[in-house]
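Onboarding guide, step 5: your first structure request.
Type a short instruction followed by the sequence, for example:

Predict the 3D structure of this protein.
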Amino acid sequence: MFLYAWLKMIFAWGDNGTISASGLRNLKYFTILSNLLMGAASALTVVYTIRKLKHNTDIPAWITKLRLAGATAVTLTFLVVLLFLWPVLKIPGLYSGATLWLHLLVPLMAIASFVLGARVPISLKESIVSVIPTLIYGAGYVGNNLINGTGEWPDTNDWYGFLTWGWKVGVLIFAVLIIMTWGAGLIMRFAHNKVYYGDKNGR
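The system replies with structure tokens like these:
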């Protein structure tokens, strides 16, 4: 469904919600990239599951780590929309058309899929992978604004409005997002490990 929602926006199939960039230009959004990451992780899981059934081989541990990174990334999308873009910036249409899937339904399915479907335990050290996509995107987002300037709407490079109150607040927002991301990753790690491996490994 994430792929359908993305294609819906690229080819303008009806109401696309609040994504202002058309076509492949909407790849600048973390919403799109995080959903594509989760989709890639899911597709690879299917491939290796079929391979396991045919050749009786184990699913590589890195697949589970990639799924955690993807699930955490779309969870951050869900939280940013729910806690910031909707109540603070009051952006309309965040849960309409294709964005309903990208902002709400896919994140919820990704969380459930990882917690209930992954088969390899994740250690506390390994949970750091959940932060990597956000760190990479945040570095690119900030770097773009530093190098090319913020600009004015609708041609702004601060399309999420994080720098609306200045750089100090913007940096603070990004720091909070990193903490939220890792927190979400730790919670999903705990829930996943506990579901399959009991209290001892779920801690």
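Each response can be followed by summary notes, for example: The chain has six helices and no strands.
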